[in-house]
Amino acid sequence: MADFQEKSKPPELPIAGRRNVLMTSALPYVNNVPHLGNIIGCVLSADVFARYCRLRGDNAIYVCRTDEYGTATETKAMEEGCTPQEICDKYHAIHRDVYEWFDISFDEFGRTSTPQQTQICQAIFSKLMDKE
């Protein structure tokens, strides 16, 4: 089983002279344990495409994150009597374990709540605001 959390060197894009493919899928919410319907409707199709691209010899990178923002996270935290951060920590680990069990071939599986993710999103938003 591939362990997408323990990559020694992250994949790189682009590589000159090769077909470079960067893909993601719908980001799963961290408000529950993922079930087969979530996997089929969310991450499986991108996983199949990533595997196809790799078999063709493409430089393919599959990136995904758990979506840790929104009403669903807040509601689940209230239901379980804990903070949204505790919900995110708990269910991100569960999602990671389930996807590893299904051998989903992420090259990078992370979280939307990291400082790096926040910085990138804010930079993109600022750039868009500057184009008004």
TrEMBL record:
GO terms for biological process: methionyl-tRNA aminoacylation; post-embryonic development; reproductive structure development. GO terms for molecular function: ATP binding; methionine-tRNA ligase activity. Residues 21-131 form the Methionyl/Leucyl tRNA synthetase domain. PROSITE patterns: AA_TRNA_LIGASE_I. Gene3D superfamilies: HUPs. One of its GO terms (cellular component) is aminoacyl-tRNA synthetase multienzyme complex. The keyword Lyase does not apply. InterPro entries: aa-tRNA-synth_I_CS, Met-tRNA_ligase_1, Methionyl/Leucyl_tRNA_Synth, MetRS_core, Rossmann-like_a/b/a_fold. Keywords: Aminoacyl-tRNA synthetase, ATP-binding, Ligase, Nucleotide-binding, Protein biosynthesis. This is Methionyl-tRNA synthetase. It comes from Papaver somniferum (Opium poppy). The lineage of its organism: Eukaryota, Viridiplantae, Streptophyta, Embryophyta, Tracheophyta.
